[in-house]
Design a protein that fits this description.
By secondary structure, the chain is mostly helical. The protein is about 55% helix and about 10% strand. It has nine helices and three strands, in the order H-H-H-H-H-E-H-E-E-H-H-H. It has a three-stranded antiparallel sheet with strand order 1-3-2. It starts with 8 loop residues before the first helix and ends with a helix.
Length: about 180
């Protein structure tokens, strides 16, 4: 779908806010922003008639759509869902609690089997962490679910338990 590099959902939201501010400014960035909004079918017809972009009608939701299209997603909802799924377990403030970081799942799984911990994923990377990280995520009160998935987010032993953890992780991420 996309070659989107790791990014936080909040960063994408900031990009959209800045894009909208650029459009509504009286600066040279307004022209570049107009060009970016012209990619939206909603506004493309207006600009093809040699009219100007109706800036007063442009909303933040349109800026979100521009950001999505520029990242090769059909709409903001798809981009948002993708980023939340890939990034819901990452917290920069908790990186100190990561025991080991891997780019290869097999190596991460071998480490987990030998040393214990929790095997999680951030985008295309795998980490082993301890309970401090899981507590920081707000997922520590689901210990029986972690046991049921054998502490392995990537290949959980119990999909039902994992689905509950995943749903909760995404909810917490979106609301942070």
């Amino acid at each position: 779908m996309s070659n989107l590099t790791p990014i936080r959902l909040n960063e994408l939201k900031l990009q959209a806010n800045f894009l909208l501010k650029d459009l509504k400014s009286n600066s040279e960035r307004a022209e570049a922003a107009t060009s970016r909004f012209s990619k939206l079918p909603y506004f493309a017809h207006v600009l093809s008639d040699k009219s100007s972009l109706p800036v007063s009608q442009v909303r933040l939701k349109h800026a979100y759509e521009v950001i999505a299209l520029e990242n090769d997603f059909p709409n903001w909802s798809s981009l948002r869902q993708y980023v939340v799924e890939k990034d819901c377990l990452y917290r920069g403030s908790l990186v100190a609690f990561v025991h080991s970081w891997f780019q290869n799942y097999a190596e991460a799984e071998a480490y987990l089997n030998k040393n214990g911990g929790y095997l999680l994923a951030f985008w295309n990377d795998f980490i082993i962490c301890g309970p401090e990280y899981v507590k920081g995520l707000g997922l520590h009160s689901y210990q029986s679910y972690w046991e049921r998935i054998h502490y392995n987010w990537i290949k959980p032993a119990d999909l039902q338990a994992w689905e509950l953890l995943r749903s909760r992780a995404k909810e917490i991420y979106v609301n942070q």
